[in-house]
Design brief:
Strand order of the largest sheet: 5-4-3-6-9-11-10
CATH class of the largest domain: Alpha Beta
Strand content: 15-25%
CATH superfamily of the largest domain: Vaccinia Virus protein VP39
Distance between the termini: 67 Å
Order of helices and strands: HHHHHEEHEHEHEHEEHHEHEHEE
Number of domains: 2
Largest sheet: 7 strands, mixed
CATH architecture of the largest domain: 3-Layer(aba) Sandwich
Length: 281
């Protein structure tokens, strides 16, 4: 049998071509052994069972084959909250926290209505629900699998009041008569072009749902539909917040007409314009 320290070293060696081999080896060891992070750090001399060791090497092997780390562990942290994730459901990225941050800056903290279009695992909607207990929040997605994962996350976080509805773009809002009822419409939409998709890593293409990533030929198709379709559902003075891809800022600005005001962009931590915010006149 091998110790924690020995297995971590072997894991680092096997994952040496990944950006953070030591971190990934520790995370996979915790998953395989079901031990808390504190034990892994405090008891490096502890021996693991043969079963735990085999499970660790199995996870390492799958990671080397290109499986996303979040899919192997079954969770991804967002807004300091662990979210359950699954293959075929879009995995949250840290830059999307900017959407949550800006809504909280603008919120009155009262009984507002917020709609999250394309919710995926529910990371934006549930993070906002945790921070804004008075808000009415609806989250939509076209994927039944994504909504199933989102509902599981709502149960795990004890946030039963978020309404999850299946549908594309604004169709759920039409059915539920949300005209001029929304204080915020937010979305992390597909914004990758078809040509960019072809150049992405096999890890992404094999495990991320293409429909949640690729918008069309230009990558701007879904964003344009969001901007043109949002006004009937926003209150006067309501906000639209949309995540965008690198290099899309100027094109997205051109989609806004005279019915909008205070259109601006915000950079992510890598100083890339990542969020477009606009207010309905």
């Amino acid at each position: 049998m091998s110790t924690i320290q020995e297995l971590l070293q072997k894991g680092r060696d096997l994952l040496k071509n990944f950006p953070q081999p030591a971190l990934e080896a520790r995370i996979l060891l915790q998953k395989a052994s079901n031990l808390p992070e504190e034990t892994v750090y405090a008891r490096p001399e502890r021996e693991l069972s043969r079963r735990q060791e085999r499970q660790f090497y199995k996870l390492i092997s799958r990671r080397r084959q290109g499986f996303p780390l979040a899919c192997l562990t079954g969770k991804k942290e967002f807004w300091s909250i662990p979210f359950r994730v699954s293959t075929g459901v879009f995995i949250p990225r840290p830059e999307t926290e900017l959407v949550v941050e800006k809504v909280l800056e603008l919120s009155s903290r009262g009984e507002e209505t917020i709609v999250d279009i394309g919710t995926g695992c529910g990371n934006i909607a549930l993070s906002l629900a945790r921070e804004l207990p008075q808000a009415q929040i609806m989250a939509t997605d076209t994927s039944q699998k994504a909504l199933k994962v989102a509902r599981v996350n709502a149960e795990l976080q004890n946030v039963p009041r978020v309404q999850f509805v299946r549908g594309s773009l604004f169709s759920p809002l039409k059915k539920l008569d949300f005209k001029q009822k929304c204080d915020f419409i937010v979305s992390n939409p597909p914004y990758v072009s078809e040509s960019e998709w072809a150049e992405l890593t096999q890890e992404i293409k094999s495990h991320e749902p293409q429909r949640a990533v690729v918008a069309g030929v230009t990558g701007l198709e879904f964003i344009q539909k969001l901007i043109h379709g949002a006004p009937p559902f926003l209150k006067s003075g309501g906000y639209l917040l949309v995540e965008i891809g690198e290099g899309q800022e100027e094109s997205v600005f051109s989609f806004f007409d005279s019915g909008w005001k205070n259109v601006e962009s915000f950079d992510d931590l890598a100083h890339i314009p990542r969020l477009i915010l606009a207010q309905k006149k």
